[in-house]
Amino acid sequence: MRTITSSFDYQVYNSASELAEADQELLEKAKQAVATSHAPYSRYHVGAAVRLANGIIVTGSNQENMSFPAGLCAERVAVFAAVSNYPGVPLASLAITATADTFEVAEPVPPCGMCRQAIVEFEMKHGNKIRVILGGHSGKVYIIDGMETLLPLTFHEAGLAK
Length: 162
Known about the structure:
The chain is α+β, with helices and mostly antiparallel strands and 162 residues long. The protein has 3 helices and 6 strands; from the N terminus they run E-H-E-E-H-E-H-E-E. The mean pLDDT is 94.
């Protein structure tokens, strides 16, 4: 037996104002997408914005349903809209942020496990890392170089019977 340790590096910025202009723009688009959230049950509103390799930005927001499994996270809404409308164009970067009705989201918002698996598939498909920008309502911003970094031991196509 042996033990393997998995870790990753990421950048931490004190505020969005420290980001490069393109990253600030993408995070701002994610913040604007929060306004289209449908979250009457959790009252936790998430916005996401995807920049494609061709420069186009596509946004999404969380869409809840009283039958909880029927809803979708903001990240998957944005990514699925992007790949549906721009097939074959790689995803370059993704920004995620959130607000809540009853508290301030002070920490950067990471994607859930289901979103991580869905998004990492597009990294594998196109053979490129997706730059991930995580923000809260205000405060620190994290930047991670590659979605697969957030999901070690990713389920791959090789795991499916052919």
